[in-house]
Structure formats: structure tokens, C-alpha cells
């Protein structure tokens, strides 16, 4: 909304000038402040869209995205006082909420098992070592297998980690089994919220006699990608 307002600010200003009863147009200084706010908040929109996917692996993206988001915002140089304060508050909140993410279980293990990231985005070497040690204890994976896997180059970000693991499952069978368990975890509740919204739209007043079994089938059919229909 802020971005759209800034894009149309010149048109909005012309319209407001011809309407005496209209609210006052923000000053140039305020528009500059809004621009600074937009610069700080835009990366959050990109991260939110990336994490809200329901057709791709998301659990392994949390740690890398938080790390990249923190780094990118920290490097910003903003001209306005408001923008600088917003940047500082944002970085502080990120550290407060995600500062210990490498100490959790699912996020670091899933990141290590993702061939796109592995151990590239860990900030704390100690936490990274602990996560690797946990990975070695899972599914009775040998030290040699884990270190051999981590020593291979990462794949391109556009590649599918699930398909990559299907190709590597004979080489790292124990790690493959663990990756299948991890990659089915969703990073956010957005996909389930989408499902509830679709269920509410389907079970309307006009269709209030739909049974749960039929509703489940309709929601399943609705979730299938168009490319599988034709």
C-alpha cells in the first residue's frame, strides 16, 4: 500500500489540490520518510512470500533467509532519522525473535540436509558443529557419510532439493530418510490457513448440507495444480 501510494503521489497531489475538503497531502519530507520505511520493509515482504509457499520445501529456508535478511538490513544506509530508527528496531527484533534459531532442532538439521544451503548460512561455528553432530547421530549415519555429503558443492537455488535427494538416496541412504522427514514440515501456518479459507468459501450457506467426506474431496481436487488436470 505504501509503495502504491508513493508511485501515485504526483497524481494524488493533483487531485487533492482541486478538492478543498480533501485531507492534506503529505509533505515532501514525509514522502521521503515513507520511502525509507518502504526500503526497510520490502525485504520482509519478499521473505514472507518465500516462506508462505505450500508447493516447495520451506523449513530449510528459515535459517538462511533470516541470516540474509539480517545482513541486508544491517548494511542499509538511510538518509532519514525515522528510517535509521526503524532499521535499528527491526534488527533488534530480528535478533530477539530469531537470534537462537541455530540452537533449535528442526531448523539447523533441515538446513544442513538441504543441498542448496548445507552449512553456508550458520553464523555460530559452535551451533553449526552441534547440528552436524546431531545429524551424525540420526539414522545411524556415519561420520564419513555426513562429512562427504557436506563436502560436496551446493546445488543451484532453483533446483528442487527433494528431486536432488532422490538422485542421492543410494549414496546417502540414512541422510535421505531424515531429509524426507524434515522436508515435509511447513515453516509457517499459511498453507493451513489457506485451506481453512477455501473450506469456508466452499461450505457456504447455499451448500450447507455438504458432508465432511465430500468437502474433503472437493478441497483435495481444488489443491491439485492445473498442469495435472490436462
From TrEMBL:
Q: Which residues form the HAT C-terminal dimerisation domain?
A: 147-223
What's one GO MF term for it? protein dimerization activity
Single GO cellular component annotation?
nucleus
PANTHER family per UniProt = DNA REPLICATION-RELATED ELEMENT FACTOR, ISOFORM A (PTHR46169:SF29)
Looking up InterPro entries in the UniProt record yields: HATC_C_dom (IPR008906), RNaseH-like_sf (IPR012337), Vacuolar_transposase_reg (IPR052717)
Q: Which SUPFAM superfamilies does UniProt cross-reference here?
A: Ribonuclease H-like
Pfam families given for it? Dimer_Tnp_hAT
Please give a single GO biological process term from the UniProt record: regulation of transcription by RNA polymerase II
Task: Kindly list the residue ranges recorded as spanning the membrane.
Answer: none
Q: Tell me the lineage of the source organism.
A: Eukaryota, Metazoa, Ecdysozoa, Arthropoda, Hexapoda
Protein name, UniProt field: HAT C-terminal dimerisation domain-containing protein
